[in-house]
Amino acid sequence: MSGQTSQIAAEGKAPEAEKGPARQSLLSRLAQNRLSLVGAFLVAVSIFMAISAPFLPLADPNAVNTSDRLADIGAPGHLLGADELGRDILSRLFWGARITLAVALAATAIAMTVGTIMGLVSGYFLGWADTVISRVVDVLMAFPYFLLALSVIAILGPGLLNGMLAVALVNVPFFARIVRGTTLSLRESDFVLAARGMGAGHTRILFRHILMNSVSTLIVATTLNIGWMITAAAALSFLGLGVQPPTSDWGTMLASGRQYLSAAPHTSLLPGLAIFFTVLGFNLLGDGLRDALDPRMREV
Amino acid sequence: MSRLQVVPPKPILQLSDLKRYFNVSDSLIGGASGSLRAVDGVTLDIKRGETLGLVGESGCGKSTLGRVIARLMPATGGEVEFEGRDILGLDRKGLLALRRDIQSVFQDPCASLNPRMTAFSIIEEPLVIHRQGSREERRARVNELFELVGLRPEYSDRYPHEFSGGQRQRIGIARALALNPKLLILDEPVSALDVSIQAQIINLLEDLQKRLGLTYLFISHDLSVVRHIADRVAVMYLGQIVELADNEDFYARPMHPYSMALLSALPVPDPHVARNRIILKGDLPSPANLPKGCRFQSRCQHVSEKCRQAPEPPLEEVAPGHKVRCWNLADIHRKQ
Questions:
Q1: ipTM exceeding 0.90, yes/no
Q2: Residue A189 is assigned to a structural domain of this protein
Q3: CB < 8 Å to B104, chain A
Q4: CATH number of the CATH domain containing A222
């Protein structure tokens, strides 16, 4: 592969051609791991469901049709049956994927941004900033995860946005710890010293040098975290504290199907399986990415 | 070479009684703490256009000295004057201006280059920080620097790991030269490289010095390399300069017992020359717990009662341009 690289470079091709081999090797390393391919496939399916929902000829997910109450799998007009109000489960799974994934991704994005900034500041500046941030993180981590999310909901009130904020807050310490760790080791590296010697300011050192070298760690942490976010968001919805009707995600579907578990198990089984496979997908993909990108993360 | 040039009277860099201590604590539970004297009262001049070789074993404080001069680390005491101006008390703006004049090259080019930046952006970065030129002017300057250090500009979009060790050090040198500095702190610039590559880098450095009129502080533990490149040699032991002399003078007539021991360990190419190696006994004393009197007493062959008593010997000029820190010079050299 290096022979190929030098050939490309010798011919003076565009920089895009140069970046090829590195990306290829990451993909090929990922492809060697069968489980991570399965994970990528499952993630792709759930993302496809979320994106394609408005474009597919699906029934209205909120159309109530009492004559089709608890229709079985394969019933005419309802490929995967209908729920207790006669709403098409297939359609609701597709539309629910949008909410479920959007909440999980947005919450992860919030947690990652806040946690990364906290980690960078505390790991780089040390001193009192580190003391304050590390103690806040310690306090947050001392709460049982779910109890913390519930108390945030108790303060802010239930709802889609508040549920998202709650699960995001719970995961801030996770990112803050990881980024603080990488920042601590990177701030002592020679290239940071060299940057300081050139006259680089804190912002440049933090973002161009330290953050850029934490990216692979962050990608891995994020992927692994999304699975947890989906479960947490679904759990909040299951308890009726997250998404409010008529909007529904997989968690609320699971909750409403629960009452008919013996009569019509598919009403709760299907959204449950959707959650299960999506979380499994993100976890497998995250494990694969971790092995391919950043073996050090195994200890976290 | 530059020894033959006319040297202006004022040195480019003057260190006086420069100190850098680190706080250390002995135990986990706070307890007794003291200071580790990495650099302990260094007084030294570097002349414009020369290469001053700073040698010493690891842990003697030579890298710390380089970092204090490059303002990568604060000093604990003493003064550093660059071109007659004090540089330890500079404000932000003054410090940024100083960065243009003093730059460093680090030992391990693998660690000193950001692995996520291309060679181009690594070398461009100092220009960006100091807001020099437009995008096109910077590109032209980086290409010029690539050629100056003997790299092909076509490689500028590669990442550090795609270069060999020698090429990486060339990138490090190009980065240091980007702002047209006057003084380069070369902190073991060839120690991490293969011997054949070392020679190439040394030649490059000598060539650059001639072309750009640079002054070098060349920090190394390798006396053979220093013999090749330095105009003057300073030997450091436990944070202090123990001997300072011109290159020929030093290698022909080392005066301090420590320098003599170091030089006796150099390989001699002639098998018929009888070698008389001086083996240093014991380890380097901890710079956190220095002995009273001369710092070299615990390992010195010629130690006498005077060495064990305070005060420490001063760094005295024993011949023109040859300074040594030892009480027993007369005795030692009469015996031989």
A1: no
A2: yes
A3: 194, 197
A4: 1.10.3720.10
